[in-house]
Amino acid sequence: MFSGFKKSFLHPRNWLTWLGLGILWAMVQLPYPVIACIGRSLGKASRPFLKRREKIARRNIELCFPEMSAVEKEKLIDDNFISLGMGLVETGMAWFWRDSRVRKWFDVEGYAHLDQAMSTGKGVIAIGVHFMSLELGGRVMGLCRPMMATYRPHNSPLMEWVQTKGRLRSNKAMIDRRNLKGLVNALKSGEAVWFAPDQDYGPKGSVFAPFFSVPDAATTNGTYAVSQLSRSAMLTITMVRKPGHAGYRLHISKAFDDYPESKIQAARYINKVIEQEILRAPGQYLWVHRRFKTRPEGATQLYS
C-alpha cells in the first residue's frame, strides 16, 4: 500500500536529495530537444567517472557478442553511456511531466495484442527488459492501459515515496518482486502485471540457461512459477528511443502460444525472447549490470 508524505522527509539529512530532485524537475521543464541534449551530454561526461561500470559493460558486451569488432564494441559502449544519461532525464520526464506532454512523444506498435490478451479475463504477464528508458516506459505503458508492476523497494524512504508517487501517476500499483502471492492474486483477478526477468537475481530460485553467447546465465524461475500458478497470458512490452529527437515507440508483442511446460526449457525460451527485445536497441540496454555474476558451482568467475 502506497503511503503518503511524511514530515521526516524534510529532515536535513534529505536536503541533498531534495536539491537533486529540484534540479531534475527544473531540467525537464525545458523543451524536449534541449532535455535530450542535456541527457546525452551528461551520459558522455559521466563515463570517465564510472570506470567500474564501464568495465562491466565492456565485459558483458565481450561475452554476449564475441564476434563483434573492437570498433563496434567501443561504439556500443559509447551509445550505452549516452543512454545512461538519457535514462536520468527520462526518469524526470516520467515522474514530473503531465500526461498531455508525455503523449506527444510516443507511439505504440501492437496495442491490439494487449487488448486481445486482456479480453480473456485471466490476466497478462507483461515481460519487460531493463532498457535505460525504463521509468518513462512504465509511465507510457500506463497511459495506454493502467497496469501493475513488480519492483525492488528503494532503500531510502524518501526516494521510495518519490518513485512510487511518480510511477502511480499512470499505473495502478507496485508489487514487491518478492511478493509472489500478491503478484499471482493480481493476475488471477484479471490484471496486467509488468515483470522483468532479465537480471541476475542470484542462485536461489534460478536455473542456468543460454543468454546470447553465454551458455550458463543464471535465469530466474519467477516467470515460470508465476505462469504455472496464474495460467495468465504472457507477452512482451518494451519501449525504445527513436533516432534523433523523434521520441519513443512502445512495442507490444503477440501473446506467446508456445511457452514451455518444462522449467529449463522455459528459461531458455524467455532468454531468447529477451535477446530479441534487446536487439531492437542494444545501445539502450542496461549493460552496466553484472548479468553473469552468479556462476555454476566450480565455474570460473566472469568479472575481475
UniProtKB/TrEMBL annotation:
Documented EC number(s): 2.3.1.242
Stored InterPro entries: LipA_acyltrans, Lipid_A_LpxL_LpxP, Lipid_A_LpxP
Entry's localization field: Cell inner membrane
Chain ranges for the short sequence motif HXXXXD motif as given in the UniProt record: 130-135
Listed GO biological process terms: Kdo2-lipid A biosynthetic process; lipid A biosynthetic process; lipopolysaccharide biosynthetic process; response to cold
Alphabetically ordered keywords of this record: Acyltransferase, Cell inner membrane, Cell membrane, Lipopolysaccharide biosynthesis, Membrane, Transferase, Transmembrane, Transmembrane helix
Alphabetical list of CDD domains matching this protein: LPLAT_LABLAT-like
Pathway, per record: Bacterial outer membrane biogenesis; lipopolysaccharide biosynthesis
Recorded catalytic activity of this chain's protein: an alpha-Kdo-(2->4)-alpha-Kdo-(2->6)-lipid IVA + a fatty acyl-[ACP] = an acyl-alpha-Kdo-(2->4)-alpha-Kdo-(2->6)-lipid IVA + holo-[ACP]
Family membership noted in the UniProt record: Belongs to the LpxL/LpxM/LpxP family. LpxP subfamily.
Protein known as: Lipid A biosynthesis acyltransferase
Gene: lpxP
